[in-house]
């Protein structure tokens, strides 16, 4: 398995590990999303000034408005954070070359 394939597998496994907390395994409830973010994205969560960050994220990503996130609804969170991190990486790289 390639490094990228392992990363994809890890992303899928992490999603389902937290989605299984309530026994359903297909979606993340607000409680499960909060637990996932506290354990897997603690730096991001701690840097947020809004105590309702998880509520806002759930509301923004929940396309079908069922108060849960399926994997497809969850992915934009990971993509958005990855894009922000890549921008920071690029800025850091540019500073290092000057």
Task: Characterise the protein shown here.
The protein is mainly alpha-helical and 98 residues long. Helix content is 71%, strand content 4%. It has five helices and two strands. The protein has a two-stranded antiparallel sheet with strand order 1-2. Helix 1 (3-19) packs across helix 2. The protein is globular. The termini are far apart.
**Rg, nearest Å:** 15 Å
Which range does the strand content fall in?
A: under 5%
State the end-to-end distance. 37 Å
- Strand line-up in the sheet with most strands: 1-2
Helix content: over 70%
Q: Helix count? A: 5
Principal-axis shape equals globular
Q: Biggest sheet: strands, sense, closure?
A: 2 strands, antiparallel
Mean pLDDT: 93
Strand segment count = 2
> Are there runs of 5+ residues with pLDDT below 50, and where?
none
* Structural classification: mainly alpha
Order of helices and strands: HEHHHEH
Keyword list:
98 residues, mainly alpha, two-stranded antiparallel sheet, 5 helices
Record the SSE blueprint.
Blueprint: H1 3-19, E1 27-28, H2 30-40, H3 42-47, H4 53-61, E2 69-70, H5 71-97
Antiparallel strand pairs: 1-2
Helix pairs in contact: 1-2
In short:
The chain is mostly helical and 98 residues long.
